[in-house]
Amino acid sequence: MGNLKLGFVIWNLKFVILTSMFSILQSMWLVFLHMFHKRETIQYPEEKVKLPARWRGRIVLTRDPDMGERCVGCYLCAAACPVDCISLQATEDENGRRYPEFFRINFSRCIFCGYCEEACPTYAIQLIPDFEMGEYNRQNLVYEKEDLLINGEGKYPGYNYYKVAGMAIGGKDKGQAENEEPPLDIKSLEP
Amino acid sequence: MATLYIDNQPHEVHSGNNLLEVCLSLGIDLPYFCWHPSLGSVGACRQCAIKVYKDENDKKGKLIMSCMEPVTNNQRISITDIEAKEFREQVIGWLMTNHPHDCAVCDEGGSCHLQDMTVMAGHTYRQFRYKKRTYKNQNLGPFINHEMNRCIQCYKCVRFYKDYAGGKDLDAFASKNKVYFGRHEDGVLESEFSGNLAEVCPTGVFTDKTLKQHYTRKWDLTMAPSICQHCSLGCNIIAGERYGSLRMISNRYNGDVNGYFICDRGRFGYEFVNAPDRIREPMLNNKVIGKTEVLEEIKRLLKEAKVIGIGSPRASLQSNFALKALVGKNNFYHGVSENEHDMADLAIKILKEGPVRTPTLSEVEKSDAVFILGEDLTNTAPMLALAVRQAVRVQPMKDVAKANIPDWNDAASREFIQDKLGPMFSATIHATKLDDIATQTYYASPDELARLGFAVAHILDNTVPDVSNLSPELNKLAEQIANSLLNAERPVIISGLSSATETVMRAAANVAWALHKKNKNTGLVLTMVECNSLGLAMMGGGRLDGAFNAILHNHADTVIVMENDLYRHGSSATVDKFLKMCKQVIVLDHSNHATIKKAHVVIPAGTFAESDGTLVNNEGRAQRFFQVYESTEVIQESWRWLLNMGVNAGNERMNKWKNFEDITRAISEEEEMLKGVETITPPANFRIAGQRIPREPHRYSGRTAMNAGINVSEPKPPEDPDSSLSYTMEGYRGQAPASLIPFFWSPGWNSVQSVNKYQEEVGGHLRGGDPGLRLLEADPNSSANYFTSVPEVFHPLEDHIWMVWTYHIFGSDNLSARSSSIAQRIPKPYVMVSPKDAEQYKLQDGQVLSFTIEKQSYSLPIKINSTLPHGVAALPYGFEGMPATELPCWGIVKPVANK
Amino acid sequence: MTEPINPWFIIGGVLAGLLTVAPGLIWFERRLLALWQDRYGPNRAGPFGVLVVLADTIKLFFKEDWIPPFADKAVFVIAPAIVAITVLMSFVIVPFAPGVIVVDLNIGILFFLAMSSMGAYSIILGGWASNNKYALLGAMRGAAQLISYEVFMGLSLMGVVLLSGSFSLQDIVNSQKGMWYVVPQFIGFVTFLIAGIAETHRLPFDIPEAESELIAGFHSEYSSMKFGLFFVGEYLGITLISALVVCLFFGGWLGPDFLPPLVWFILKTFVFIGLFILLRASMPRPRYDQLMEFGWKIILPITLLNLVVTAVILLVQSGAVMNIKF
């Protein structure tokens, strides 16, 4: 019996060695065959990459359909930013419309996570499919508002935050926003 | 004590309180809107619904509003019950039906009680499909912004403004779904406490308009615990900075001092810190020089000169002490006028040697009889006026308690009281804003006020000298006051420095001491002029005249003036002469003033926001304020400049002091009356779990970008050698000790309401005790040595008027007056005269009266005040162009020129 | 035999050749790996990216040559030198072509084995001197691995030695004129190849440096040219093992006459270098205990068996068996 068992173990071992060796050789062969496969690399500077629309690249500030600045300086993007690379100062024009006095993104810190876009309640800040922003001088990676602001609506056309907000701004008084009643006359005697 | 079962868990709680208060005190999150610890419950918002059960077997229970239900023993309630939860969610859903889509542009966002409660109650989606109601806003003046669309009709604003603070011009208008909170028309909110609306309002209807000028979210502020610098009460505040400028002041709860509220001077007076004419660079003969050069220059000056130092009642103990150490004990002078100096000394004498204790602000609120002698509290110590407003409700509230109505049940108790008020007697020079709650008022010249005081004291205790020639009406009034005070459980006498007449304060002390023989609960409050008047007086030092004489008699030739405008404390002729005689004038200050223009060396000192220091308020409470931020490398605390100078000059004693702590310890060791000031905050090496306490909330943003415009490489954040606070967001996340709380925040509670989580019991003391150390405690067993010199009757003189000060909450304080919002509320300089005098000089309101005081002539438009006694005229204290001579004194009226 | 070449020329030539080949292999390996992974690899600097070698070298030379303050400085400096020296010394006995050999030692193979054992010191000392836990772990693994595989590396060669009757590589190559030893000594070839890979601690046997577990193991703390020396040592090791495989089992420089012997040798060597790289491209790293088990429990018995069987066959062939008297 003992002999039989030992024999079985040896047979088994042989089997294991053979099959595993075969699998190793097989995988080496398969890897070797890749020599004749097409290369996947895109030869970047000569050949351009086609990026999807939702690619998280360079950050821009967009405008609403009336070409007013969409950013209202609510600081949510700055708060959402995990590397704290956005800083801004909100201010107001004479009609009560808010906009950023300055808006700075330090792209040398940005990790392009897109949280700022997610946090933005006005669709102002958007990440666009452009990553070609390398610089030799790190200081040049600090973008100010004039570097960020574009003359367009970006990915979300048609949205105008002030049309849904309750604040009165120039050109839109109380009660003129979407889904709003005209302002109440509190001195009226009607019930 | 009672046992309360919350979701089947037993808790030991105080019986008599309402369930909401109890749940919050236990640390349970329960949403609410209309309730406020100081305002009580009205059950208006229906947000704090919970289930209450009859007994253990009751599985169904019934929904109640927790804020309207007192705790009873063995009561069983449920907060997590599904029905209660759904009810709360629906309630907030309704409240939100008309709430605009504004959070992004709303100043409240990020510290909004409505946001917090919406999340807490679980409402996520607006299901109401119809249109939103809108309102027109009002312009409410320079302090408060109005955005009525955001209102959820909790009524807390009018309950605070009208019922609590006695305001008259904010109310609820219209009815049902149209209810509107505002004024009857656009205009400035009159109340001195209107700024609290921004904190009381659970959402963004009322917001801080000055913050809007440089808007910053709460989470982006670098904040530190601070002390208000604009009057002597020492309210606790939180100062917040962003991008190198001070952005906002908010209330810092202190159960003993200011509680939940601060006045508008304190809240909006901060902008002097950001003023464009701030002193930001050292200057030598009007030329900007560097820090090392200026120190070298001073080293040279100090070597060859005989130096005296003039301290300041608005500078910290540390700064004054450092100056004293630098120039020597005998060369240190208080930078206050003769009268102020003497009265501060008198105040210390009264408070320390007399038997009567000075109560805290919260104790004043609980007093049931008030006698104000010579103080226009609303303008000299606004929060004290607010406390008095609460005190007059104490007596009627006793009847409320008898009727078994809990004191927190605001609507019921107010209904019960109607317009009954407790005894409050106001004896002032002219009408004040507190007169509407006064039982009796009396307007007279300061000496006459003192006579009333002496008369009251004589009635209370006949060992006090009697007042001769007292009119029968006055005698009757005195008797009425004496009786009311005698019948009270906790009477309080309030007086102070503002009448600038020592006899008034003496009379007040006599009343308090006489009353003390009958009632040991008597309190005496004396207000001071500046935030550290009392601290400076406790430190000892010469009078300002002494400083002038030292120079005039060539005992010294160089003067160091610290945080003081001498022109506010001495007549301009004297100060001019003095400054001219000095070989060198070295001025340390942060804001520009007349003395600086005459200085040879100007050194930029830090404001309270850029400094660490300790102040002593009018009750003798030493409180520490912390540096909020480092603005530039040059600006530093006065005491640090003085230490640098001392070390340069080889001052052995100062050489040993390296930081705030060393100098504070030295104060405690060397100044008898200031013993223990180093114990009011934990030491600088205090750490929790090895960490400092962060000045910035954990959501602080933009730190890798804010300076990137200048240099993309981020600088190392400054380290604080003086306290255990850190300048960054890194550090201990839990609750700091009470004296080190840089801001109130708790998970799920981003608004100021998070202060609930920091209190031992809602509305009570902060955990670990309210910060501050009372340095003056009266000995109740000491005998009162009554003041005996009773002033004579005041007789008006021909062509003379007795000039006294009148105070303005906005304008009388020099620092806050530099704030642009406050500046809009400051009246033009004027002279207040009585109708009789106006008639005598044939003047109409607004016409110019010319008069001379100590040979200096003045021409000011008159304001006729019918309550001002004949022969007395009042000048607004601290205004530009006001005589710096000591009032009260006689002014000679020039004959009318145009006649 | 032709005129013997001046040995100084050979030494110079071998040194120059090897020191060019070693960094060149960096480029070669990266290109090959890329090829098998459907990429290009370095293709920007110079034709086909060969100048990446230059760039790498310059980079290595210009990096800060940092010695950690906590390291044992002397040992830390010596360690990388050891690996380079021992591997270069091993090349002394390799015949590149008839006569092109530095010294034809009659104990050639033994010399190689001795040198490769010495190489283990480099890892142990480097890891120890770094005074870093990962480095030390790597060093301990390296020591255990090298000593284990050393055992049957020697044994696996004995078959060839038996067949040729000499330790001199030149003799061994010459004796393969009829048939490459890979045929009779196939098992010897396989085991030697495995042991060789393990000796050079190349993938899949790069346990001592296993970056995912040990952060580069024994050379964690090394930078600049000291790191470079370890690197050069590794590539020289690959070349050495390939050259030895060629000499021992694939007839060394032997080949049809249309190419000169040196070229045959180089070609064959590069095939095996390619095999090394293919292994790296296709094999995962075994667990440390599996590696030891594989060595002691499987390879060692097989080599012993191979040795015994070869010896018996030789004995039978030589007729000596007949003479044994029972």
Structure notes:
The complex is a heterotrimer of chains A (191), B (899) and C (326). Helices cover 26% and strands 15% of the residues of chain A. Chain A is α+β, with helices and mostly antiparallel strands and 191 residues long. Chain B is an alpha/beta fold. Chain B has 27 helices and 36 strands. Chain C has 326 residues and is an all-alpha fold. Chains in contact: A-B, A-C. The A-C interface holds A 17, 24, 27-28, 30-32, 34-35, 37-41, 43 and C 35-40, 278-279, 281-283, 298. β6 (180-183) of chain A pairs parallel with β6 (132-134) of chain B.
Biggest interface, chains and residue tallies: A-B, 50 and 45 residues
Overall geometry of chain B comes to globular
Strand content of chain B: 15-25%
Percentage of residues in strands of chain C: under 5%
> Given the helix and strand composition of chain C, which structural class is it?
mainly alpha
Distinctive features:
heterotrimer, A: 191 residues, two-stranded antiparallel sheet, 5 helices, elongated, C: 326 residues, mainly alpha, globular
Task: Give a concise summary.
The complex is a heterotrimer of chains A (191), B (899) and C (326). Chain A is of the alpha+beta class. Chain A has helices at residues 2-33, 76-80, 115-119, 145-148, 161-164; strands spanning 59-61, 86-92, 98-106, 125-127, 142-143, 180-183.
List the helices and strands and how they pair.
The complex is a heterotrimer of chains A (191), B (899) and C (326).
Chain A: H1 2-33, E1 59-61, H2 76-80, E2 86-92, E3 98-106, H3 115-119, E4 125-127, E5 142-143, H4 145-148, H5 161-164, E6 180-183
Antiparallel strand pairs in A: 1-4, 2-3, 3-5
Chain B: E1 2-6, E2 9-13, H1 19-25, E3 49-53, E4 62-65, E5 75-78, H2 82-95, H3 113-121, E6 132-134, E7 144-146, H4 156-164, E8 171-173, E9 180-182, H5 197-200, E10 206-208, H6 209-213, E11 222-227, E12 236-242, E13 245-251, H7 264-268, E14 283-284, E15 287-288, H8 291-304, E16 307-310, H9 317-327, E17 332-333, H10 338-353, H11 361-365, E18 369-373, H12 377-380, H13 382-391, H14 394-402, H15 410-417, E19 424-428, E20 440-443, H16 446-460, H17 472-487, E21 491-496, H18 502-518, E22 523-527, H19 533-539, H20 544-552, E23 558-562, H21 572-581, E24 584-589, H22 594-597, E25 601-604, E26 613-616, E27 621-625, H23 638-648, H24 652-655, H25 660-670, E28 693-694, E29 725-726, E30 773-774, E31 800-806, H26 820-823, E32 831-833, H27 835-840, E33 848-853, E34 856-864, E35 872-876, E36 889-893
Parallel strand pairs in B: 1-5, 16-17, 16-23, 18-19, 18-21, 19-20, 21-22, 23-24, 24-25, 28-29, 31-35, 32-34
Antiparallel strand pairs in B: 1-2, 3-4, 3-5, 7-10, 8-9, 11-12, 12-13, 14-15, 14-25, 26-27, 27-30, 31-36, 32-35, 33-34, 33-36
Helix pairs in contact in B: 9-23, 9-25, 10-18, 10-19, 16-17, 16-18
Chain C: H1 7-36, H2 52-62, H3 73-90, H4 108-129, H5 133-164, H6 169-174, H7 186-199, H8 211-214, H9 224-249, H10 261-282, H11 288-318, H12 320-323
